[in-house]
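Aim 2 progress update. The chain analyzed this quarter is reproduced below.
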Amino acid sequence: MPALTIGVTAARFEACKRGLAANYAAILARREDVSVCVVDTDSRSCDVGTRLAIRGTSLQRFAAPRVAGKGAILPARALPRLVFPPLSVLPVEPAFIDLDFGLAYDAALAAVREAFDVVVVDLPVGAGRPGPTLDGRMVDKVDVLLIAATPDRSALAATLRHLELFEEALDRGAVAPHVRAAAVMTGDEGSTLLDPIDVAEMLGDGLIGHVPQLWGRSLPNFGFGPTLGVAFLEAEIDRMHALLSVQPRSGDAVTLQRTR
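Predicted structure tokens:
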């Protein structure tokens, strides 16, 4: 079975989503009982590889043989990987999200989904909704779309609208019917304007977890993760992943529900 593939986006702000994607993947990889790969597909910021200090093959170069029609088997297991946690990383080069990038994305995702147990994809801001941020249906390749949201007024309003637009996109067939969406609260609680409890009430069952933004507090991470050894952070990621892992990877209509 292809890897459980989790896409991470945000309605407005890049910083919260890329840290969530990197740390979600790293915390899973720490257990060493599943193989995990994090893929950067946000070709505007290209931040995941940089922040994890990975200078290896980019997504575009990795996928080039398949895109060129050579029928090559892409060596996903040979991707650069951290020593600990044993997390494989596929960075991205700056690019427009156009036909060429879409072909590279499709080839790369197909390869890593066959090679790993879990794939976490850092998607562009606004992925999964129609309109000017149209992402070329990149979310069709994921099983679950997590929308990272900070507990402030503008981010909350944008996240609620994003969830509405995602449902509209599903109804119109603009997103593959097997993809489910949910929100995850994150961000620096010291600079928020809203109480996280109030945000949770407003998001309701659309919210499946609360992952405080603790990355960047350990070296040599240059801004975020992996942040390991924080018990409640690891426990929350493990709980969320257990919830996401039981979701079907088909066209069945299933709503993600929070566990308490």
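The beta strands are 4-10, 36-40, 87-90, 118-122, 144-149, 180-185, 207-210. The helical segments are 14-29, 47-51, 59-67, 99-115, 153-172, 196-203, 231-245. These observations will guide the mutagenesis experiments scheduled for the next reporting period.
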